[in-house]
Amino acid sequence: MDQPPGRQPVEQGPIRPPSEAKSLLVRVTRNCPWNRCAFCRTYRGEPFSRRGIAEVKEEIRRMAEAAGRLRPSCEANAGAGREGCGPSPGGLSRPDEDEACVDAVGAWLRMGGEAVFLQDADALCLPAEELEELIAFIRASLPTVRRITAYARARSAVRKTPGELERLKAAGLSRLHLGMESGSDPVLKLVRKGVTPAQQVEGGQKITDAGISLCLYVMPGLGGSRWSEEHAVQTARVLGLINPDHIRLRTLQVVPGTPLAEMVERGEFQPLDDEAILGEIRLFLGALEGITSEVVSDHILNLLEELEGRLPGDRERLVGVIDRYFALAPAERLLFRLGRRLGTYRRLEDLDDPDTRRRLQEILQRYRGRDPLDLERDLAALRSRYI
Question: What is the mean pLDDT of residues 169-179?
Answer without folding.
Answer: 98
